[in-house]
């Protein structure tokens, strides 16, 4: 790298440090902008309020317009502002090699489990990936399909059987077999991007020490097949890519979804 490039990089890093806004101020700023947007919306809607008020009375008109305009507008303005001012910390380690364990709790997933394991085998992660598949009372050949796929793909794979129903029993039964610092939960029909494990481990290693979990981004693959799938695509996008990121910004993430999340193993125990 030339001396000029080094100076530019240092100035850029300095700029990022200078414009850093603390979380409470981000929260306050987002509310101020959202409130300003709502006041502007109220001003623009005054003719509408008057016209509708002649039909249903003015108080009812205000309630109707507030429900379909003011309140949703405030919420959306708050979310958009929060996402725009959110700056995720840069990865401190872009190629981590920490050993991780992936738990897959499944029931009657004979058709999906092999493909899911294939995507795990194709990860570009530098560290060792251990996989524990927990068959939670399947009535098909999930157990044997998982074992066969593990051998075929040369994975560090264990297949367990948990007869107690419910996913939490299956996941908890795998904890005794985990010796790694990080644990990833994965659904049997979740297909990982080839860099998914590398990115999610990089994120938790770059986060403050008190962070004990990272929720991965989950999107719908078959989002163009039918109308329900299209609705689900937007549900996932808004619920995970937008809302969950905003919750993370304000240090208030409510749920790390089981479909794909990483945890510090000690926190789980």
TrEMBL record:
Entry GO MF terms: glycosyltransferase activity
Top-level lineage group: Bacteria
UniProtKB keywords: Glycosyltransferase, Membrane, Transferase, Transmembrane, Transmembrane helix
CDD domains in alphabetical order: CESA_like
Keyword Transmembrane helix: yes
TM stretches of this protein: 27-48, 60-85
Domain Glycosyltransferase 2-like intervals: 101-268
UniProt keyword Ion transport present: no
Protein name from the UniProt record: Glycosyl transferase 2 family protein
